[in-house]
Prior knowledge:
The chain is α/β, with parallel strands linked by helices. The protein has a single domain (about 5-110, about 160-190, about 205-220), classed as Spore Coat Polysaccharide Biosynthesis Protein SpsA, Chain A (Alpha-Beta Complex). Helix content is about 35%, strand content about 25%. It has helices at about 30-40, 55-65, 80-90, 110-120, 165-175, 185-190, 210-220, and strands at about 5-10, 25, 30, 45-50, 70-75, 95-100, 125-130, 135-140, 145-150, 155-165, 195-200. Strands 5-4-1-6-10-7-11 form a 7-stranded mixed β-sheet, sandwiched between helices. A hairpin with a 5-residue loop joins strand 8 (about 135-140) and strand 9. Helix 1 crosses helix 4. It is globular. It starts with a strand and ends with a helix.
Amino acid sequence: MDLAFVxxxxxxxxxxxxxxxxxxxxxxxxxxxxxxxxxxAAPEALMVVVVAETHLDFWRENLAPDFPxxxxxxxxNRRQDSVRAGVLYAAQAxxxxxxxxxxxxxxxxxxxVQAVISSLGGSAGAILTARVSDTVxxxxxxxxxxxxxxxxxFRLAQTPQVFRVATLMExxxxxxxxxxxxxxxxxxxxxxxxxxAVLARHPNxxxxxxxxxxxxxxxxxxxx
Length: 224
């Protein structure tokens, strides 16, 4: 299959307070670390890097020297718009399958990336997931606990998420463009299309806050 990665880093970093992807993890930025992990998983795959329009030159100058195979695309106002821009570029380049990854997950293990790509098989979508380790409570509108939900049937969605390009293109044409999707797997789910959940075998934290960055840095320092 013709595979393309779509590594998305077009967010504004509102919750972090600055551009978290430019923070350093050892010798490389968060963004570069994420791209490097994807590249190790499938070196021959097209690498589409989606960034904010205003940061295109900055990231091209910082990332292109280490990743000459990368192609840079301007993102949109919403994550789903940025993903769509990257997938459209990949489709025009001939990709049949895309692996969408959040650049804010820099420590994704290449083995897990390969596992979720391989699990696609004849399906339309497959996503990397993690077990829910804490007890899950369901609450009402007044923050009162209603009951305890069995966590064995729940998974936390991560990235990469792998899809057939034709499926995404068809669903985008049919979907309400104003509706917000938290991820592309939700888009498939809304159309009744099964999505395969692949359990990650390695930690895959997301950098959302400064505390997250400290944890990820500690993990990097502990595994040089």
